[in-house]
Amino acid sequence: MLHTPTLRATRAGRIALDLPHSRPVPAVKASGHRVGLGFDWGVNTLLTGTLGRLAGRGSAQRVLTDGRPLIFDATTISATLHRLRTLREHLAAKRDHCQALADGLGSPHPVWGEHLERAQVLAVEHVRVCARIRHLNSALARAAARWAVDQAVALGASVIYLEDLATLEARGHRKGNARLSGQVRGTVAEAIRHLGAKAGIAVVTVPPRGTSKLCPGCLSPLTHHPAPDRLHERGWKWAHCTRCGLSMDRDHAAGRRIVSRGLLAQTQTVTDRATGIRTIRTTIEGTVCLVRRPKKTTRRLRRQLRAEVTPPRPAGPKTTKVKGHPTRSRPSGPRGRRVPRATAAPDQDPGPKSSRRTSDVRTVPATAPTPGAVQRPAGHDTTTPAAFRPVPGHGVPVPCRTEEDLLLSGRVRLSRRTCRQRTSAAERTGFHHLHATEVHSLTPRFGPPDGNRRWPRRVRKAWKPQAHTEFQRR
Asked: Dihedrals φ, ψ of 187, to 5°?
């Protein structure tokens, strides 16, 4: 459906026509979800999430996870944005200073024009830096939202849970809080809602308070440390539970708690009539159980299961015919006879024994030892100096191979004028220094099977009854 257009003037002196349009999307239910994704906001890792599945009925409901972390690491882009924001504040301060000097001196003063011209140049540069920050924020938000929705579609999730930005505040006076408050979380949340509506996935916000405080496995208080091998020090990045022994990334543990809060309290979802944003304001705490995904029924797995079921062979003498002669190691003649070895005359020297090993090849003779120098082995030319040149592969063009030659050899597309291979993250998101978890299509059916749903044959064969009994016993 087309809507009222908008006319605007461009820098080239032309009139541009912005024609907005809308299309219908399927209605997404607010509750009744069984598989969902929970994402936690971070400083360097913009999004860290995990997959959760609701198992059981009624009061026996619990959340299961496969333990696979989903990370959207935007460290370099976050550092670039932080540097641009610092530059923007510096330009604004210099602009205001030059403008104040020009206003204080007045027009008759000879230096008045220089201060005023400098203030105008700084104002133009400030506008350009602000535009660059906006464009980078928009591109980063679209890339993160597309990655999150692709993960939900590939994993079979019908809902995405995020932390509520209205109640999420940066507290304290640490340096990280400035970067926390300056990130593009609002833009990312709006982009996720837009793309999720097109894909038929609901986006719901949950209360963020206490997601990193308690353990997702036993709901005990967590201790935070700088690294897993430095648990005796206080830090921020790593979470450790002294009760159940949980040790994992802080944001990953918070992602488990977010998906648990969303799936357990999905019946308390409230929809804003004006904006259509769905929010859960009620906090229901529950543990998250880690389960493994069923293995595929490969040939090796089938042989292993067959060996476990088959009874052992009885002990006794072998009934099969054994080999009565050793394996021949020398070549045989045309009729199966061995080729006789050539013998020398009695009065001649038989010479050294021939060997089938490849003979050593010397490309360069050994150099004569010189006083004061270390003698090198033969095969290395120590007289000719080595040619030092830049190594191809880090922005240096290949001297003898062109991009057309590499394309003809069957390799994937390369970057322009270099031999570096383009990464999937750069092709998908547009950022060459972005690290994100690859999107893998995995079935959402993991953990103990439900009674009202029948699993495929390969999953039923891979699922062992004793493992199910042990899980129920726990």
From this structure: -65, -40
Beta bridge partners of 206: 163
Residue 222 CA to residue 248 CA, distance in Å, equals 11
Q: How many residues does the chain have?
A: 474
Q: If pLDDT is split at 50, 70 and 90, which confidence band does 417 have? A: very low
Q: What is the dihedral of CA 465, 466, 468, 472, to 10 degrees?
A: 140
Local structure of 214: helix, strand or coil: strand
DSSP helix/strand/coil, 104? helix
Q: Which helix (H) or strand (E) holds 205?
A: strand 202-206
Can you say how many angstroms the Cα of residue 462 is from the centroid of all Cα atoms in its chain?
28
What does each C-alpha distance from 79 to 1, 73, 83, 185, 393 come to in angstroms? 41, 12, 6, 15, 25
pLDDT tens per residue across span 162-206: 998 877 665 554 454 445 455 688 899 999 999 999 999 999 999
pLDDT given at position 389: 47
Per cent of the chain over pLDDT 90 is 38
For residue range 42-84, what is the model confidence (pLDDT) as tens digits? 866 889 999 999 988 877 888 999 889 999 988 888 888 889 9
Q: What is the mean pLDDT of the chain?
A: 76
> Three-class SS of residue 176?
helix
| pTM of the entire predicted model | 0.66
Q: Are 37 and 49 in contact (CB under 8 A)?
A: yes
Q: From CA 116, how far away is CA 101, in angstroms rounded? A: 8
Strands 435-436 and 238-240: unpaired
276 within 8 A of 197, measured Cβ to Cβ: no
**DSSP label of 266:** G
Q: How many CA atoms lie within 13 A of 81 on its CB side?
A: 24
Q: Would you call 197 exposed, middle or buried from its count of C-beta atoms within 10 A (0-12, 13-18, 19+)?
A: middle
Question: Greatest CA span in the chain, whole angstroms?
Answer: 121
The tokens describing 75, both together, are: 């460290």
Q: At a CB cut-off of 8 Å and minimum separation 6, what does 256 contact?
A: 38, 50, 52, 65, 216, 288
User: Who wins on pLDDT, 374 or 167?
Assistant: 167
Give the containing element (helix H, strand E) for 240: strand 238-240
Distance CA 152, CA 193 (A): 13
